[in-house]
């Protein structure tokens, strides 16, 4: 793991530019073909791509109730209890985000307002393949249910046995997912967008996936809404010599094991502390089952940055705008006002990032790749839409009609003005 000084911004630039644009162009060409084939051929294309990419031949892509019930029997009872408790925490947190319709009377007979309505049908993408992520099911589905979404359609790649991991199905059942389909990749995004014989189209797609899923989501935006384009995971830790180096090292590695492109950064004013954390990372790395992935991540996108002051640490962190920011300083609440850009903020030594990933309640679908500068975690707001309410009586419109007509003339829109004139 590199130890660098703030004056050397070479690492920062490599972090900000992790995309290989030549590779993305090649992926986009493949994604375009997948989207077009699914739009044209429907289920037949889904079965074709599932066999090609997932190496499994399916007869039916929809998960049956029998499969779900069987999965529930296979999942450990203790894990079902943990899922249920996590659901309750997530539900409670997201209920606080609920908005209500509102109205006000500008004058006695003029009513203005805003009507809040849930999106009727959404799709959630849950990654599969090498690992199962029931936490993603909870984080994507529960805010939608809290918002009042009436139909949730979940897509996720099948395993080599043609089945969905039992933990995924259990989480879907607990979260209230309405439909589950054994399809992943860009083809799943196409199915949710355009619809097939088996899958009805949705109005919004949420959830993380690989680069093919991310590029497909970008391309279908406009046909449907999407939550965000999720990039490789990131963690930034601000700590000084009073923090425990073993805690810091473990938290850095918790993100490094996600992906070879994951980025783990420690910012500290202490060179001695930096060296001790580096040694801890090297020791703890040896114990990880996913140490090959974590090692590549740490080597390529891991760094300990030495700054002159804690103030400078926050300036740098705000520029990075990390997905996860941990503040491991004494009295961390005192520094909260210094944070301008971060997806989720973890305060103190006993609020590690996995607490947010799995259990605390706030959503773990977070903005990455500097998008925390302008976007927010997934939440109830992502599953609602707003309609403006306008009510005038005749005498109210008459009072302002000439002003509106004058305005329409300035824009050269005669028909707009006539819409007012014809009423008088």
From TrEMBL:
Binds 1 zinc ion per subunit. NAD(+) binds at residues 125, 187, 210. Pathway: Amino-acid biosynthesis; L-histidine biosynthesis; L-histidine from 5-phospho-alpha-D-ribose 1-diphosphate: step 9/9. Zn(2+) binds at residues 255, 258, 357, 416. Pfam families: Histidinol_dh (PF00815). One of its GO terms (biological process) is L-histidine biosynthetic process. Residues 58-85 form a coiled coil. One of its GO terms (molecular function) is NAD binding. Its cofactor is Zn(2+). Substrate binds at residues 233, 255, 258, 324, 357, 411, 416. Its EC number is 1.1.1.23. Keywords: Amino-acid biosynthesis, Coiled coil, Histidine biosynthesis, Metal-binding, NAD, Oxidoreductase, Zinc. One of its GO terms (cellular component) is cytosol. It comes from the Bacteria. CDD domains: Histidinol_dh. NCBIfam families: hisD. HAMAP family: HisD. This is Histidinol dehydrogenase. It comes from Garciella nitratireducens DSM 15102. The lineage of its organism: Bacteria, Bacillati, Bacillota, Clostridia, Eubacteriales. The gene is hisD.
């Amino acid at each position: 793991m590199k130890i660098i000084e703030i004056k050397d911004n070479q690492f920062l630039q490599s972090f900000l530019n992790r995309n290989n644009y030549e590779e993305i162009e090649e992926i986009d060409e493949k994604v375009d073909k997948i989207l077009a084939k699914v739009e044209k051929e429907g289920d037949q294309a889904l079965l074709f791509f599932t066999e090609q990419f997932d190496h499994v031949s399916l007869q039916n892509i929809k998960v049956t109730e029998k499969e779900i019930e069987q999965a529930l029997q296979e999942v450990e009872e203790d894990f079902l209890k943990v899922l249920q408790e996590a659901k309750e925490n997530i539900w409670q947190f997201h209920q606080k985000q609920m908005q209500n319709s509102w109205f006000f009377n500008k004058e006695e007979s003029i009513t203005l307002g805003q009507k809040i309505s849930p999106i009727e049908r959404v799709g959630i993408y849950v990654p599969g393949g090498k690992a199962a992520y029931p936490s993603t099911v909870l984080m994507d589905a529960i805010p939608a249910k809290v918002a009042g979404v009436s139909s949730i359609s979940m897509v996720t790649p099948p395993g080599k046995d043609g089945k969905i991991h039992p933990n995924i199905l259990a989480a879907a059942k607990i979260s209230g997912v309405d439909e589950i389909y054994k399809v992943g990749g860009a083809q799943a995004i196409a199915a949710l967008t355009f619809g097939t014989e088996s899958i009805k189209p949705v109005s919004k797609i949420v959830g993380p996936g690989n680069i093919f899923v991310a590029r497909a989501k970008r391309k279908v935006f406009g046909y449907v809404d999407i939550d965000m384009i999720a990039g490789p995971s990131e963690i930034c830790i601000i700590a000084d010599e009073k923090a425990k180096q073993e805690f810091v090292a473990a938290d850095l590695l918790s993100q490094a094991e996600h992906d070879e492109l994951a980025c783990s950064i420690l910012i500290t004013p202490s060179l001695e502390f930096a060296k001790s954390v580096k040694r801890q990372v090297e020791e703890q790395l040896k114990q990880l089952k996913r140490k090959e992935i974590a090692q590549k991540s740490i080597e390529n996108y891991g760094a300990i940055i030495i700054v002159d002051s804690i103030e400078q640490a926050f300036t740098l962190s705000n520029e990075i705008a990390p997905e996860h920011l941990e503040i491991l300083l004494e009295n961390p609440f005192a520094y909260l006002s210094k944070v301008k850009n971060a997806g989720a903020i973890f305060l103190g030594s006993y609020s590690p990032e996995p607490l947010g990933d799995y259990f605390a309640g706030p959503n773990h679908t977070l903005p990455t790749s500097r998008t925390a500068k302008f976007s927010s975690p997934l939440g109830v707001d992502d599953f609602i839409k707003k309609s403006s309410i306008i009510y005038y009586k005749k005498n109210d419109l008459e009072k302002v009609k000439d002003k509106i007509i004058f305005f329409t003339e300035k824009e050269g829109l005669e028909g707009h003005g006539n819409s007012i004139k014809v009423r008088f």
